[in-house]
Amino acid sequence: xxxxxxxxPIATNEPVRNYKPSSQEVKSLISTYRKxxxxxxxxxxxxxxxxxxxxxxxRLQSPQDHHHDLGFYYAGNTEHxxxxxxxxxxxxxxxxxxxxxxxxxxxxxxxxxxxxPYRDKLNAATMIAQSKNVHQAEIDSACEFTxxxxxxxxxxxxIYAEQPISDNGIWNRIExxxxxGFCFAVTPFNFTAISGNLPACMAMxxxxxxxxxxxxxxxxxxxxxxxxxxxxxxxxxxxxIFTDGRETAKRVLSHPDxxxxxxxxxxxxxxxxxxxxxxxxxxxxxxxxxVGETGGKDFVMAHSSANAEAVATGLxxxxxxxxxxKCSAASRAYIPESLWKExxxxxxxxxxxxxxxxxEDPVNFVNAVxxxxxxxxxxxxxxxxxxxxxxxVIIGGKYDDKKGWFIYPTVIKCTDPTYESMVEEIFGPIxxxxxxxxxxxxxxLKLVDKSTSYSLTGSIFARDRYAIxxxxxxxxxASGNFYINDKPxxxxxxxxxxxxxxxxxxxxxxxxxxxxxxxxxxxxxxETFVSPKDYKYPYLG
Length: 541
Ligand code: NAD
Fold this sequence. Notes:
Layout: H1 24-38, E1 41-43, E2 45-47, E3 50-52, E4 57-59, E5 71-74, H2 78-97, H3 100-115, H4 119-130, H5 134-161, E6 170-178, E7 182-186, H6 192-204, E8 209-212, H7 218-230, E9 238-240, H8 245-252, E10 258-264, H9 267-279, E11 289-293, E12 298-302, H10 308-320, E13 330-336, H11 337-352, H12 372-387, E14 391-395, E15 399-400, E16 406-407, E17 410-414, H13 420-423, E18 430-436, H14 441-450, E19 454-455, E20 457-461, H15 465-474, E21 481-484, E22 501-502, H16 513-516, E23 520-528
Parallel strand pairs: 1-5, 7-8, 7-10, 8-9, 10-11, 12-13, 12-20, 13-18, 17-18, 20-21
Antiparallel strand pairs: 2-3, 4-5, 6-23, 14-17, 15-16, 19-22
């Protein structure tokens, strides 16, 4: 146990490499990609630090080339779910007893491994399996993940340092215990950083974890476990299983020692899991913590005083980076009639210059969508819009699945602000635009606020400060992350804590103290130095 009140290194954001053409850093990353592309993977689950293989081999796919043979992963069954739970519970006592400096050092070391020797490997795995270009992989798997680990170490010590006041003759303390039982992390395909952070931040706070990553993110999840192991994470603290989501949830959420769910993914899946937790509430030893960051239908609202170039650029980057597969992606825009012609022209010329293709070639700004389901979902919206009387495909609308799942950046202009593509989460490179009459600014603010059940991110573009203030108030609850004159994506750990309300999540702000507080259960301690020896208070005479 510690004999010092140590301070962790001051967290700073990992600088983003710019991968300029012909630079050494881009050459190194692309050559790592090419080497890894040729490997035939056999990815095991990791339970109790051991590689677990099964008879069920599932083919791994790359979105940019669905014919390519990447190898396979070993899928598990109910036996593996049960084993992951019992292993986590068995690891709990030792992990809990370990001094916090030792615990946190493991994750700080993992951060340095990601920023250093594993950077290219984790980025390349993200590019191959999740179809991110060099920049998107860099800001996610290298930088955001490193930031999560470094900042969480600092936030953890800030939480530990938060102590109550003491009175004369007594000493009051609070200790921040991990939750009793085990925690469950369920992660999405679209961010390597999120998938690593969800189990890691719970473990950093002293918890033991069963982690089920998305079956479309298994390659980078595998590299993450390799990094945690190299960083010295003891066996059994995080157990990674590749099992069916529904079956896993059913078994984990009915276990009496289930203590907390850390979920990121779609609203529907989270709501199903919450219902199961409600139905099982009488079975648990303690009330579980439930944290979920879910879907979005993120808006960009332009005022007539906005700069047209800034709006167009915010829309192009916000809607089409990572093929619109960010929960924060701009997917509905409200543009005043007076600016529409100019914004449309700039958007069109920017989109015309976008190259679509494999991330292996860094000139491609837009890469493939994650899988066939997503591809078909996007086509559905495009084709219905082409036939609709309330919508018109004004830019893009092309797609191509001969080699990979490529959807070209598409803009749909809607005359009905409640048209399906204006209100439903598509999760693809499709932006819907509603052009409003300048005089209807106030009514349009109401539309923005009320058209969807989500509340994740949103932007207001304006130069008029009165308009900014008005939007700021009218849209108070329309997003958990609000941007002024910027795109609604790209939150940075430590700078813009991320999360949304309404049906977008519990808004516990990943990468902040607010989130970490959910994974501890405080114990208040009062010590009286000289204990009273008589029950009579002075007022009794
Ligand atoms: P998803 O909901 O399909 O899957 C998320 C995880 O849940 C995966 O591990 C999946 O295997 C598992 N799962 C699927 N069905 C399940 C079931 N019935 N029971 C239990 N687990 C189940 O989401 P996705 O496609 O991986 O990710 C995209 C979604 O995630 C979008 O809706 C996006 O908005 C959201 N997202 C939100 C945030 C945020 O911070 N708010 C961040 C990233 C992604």
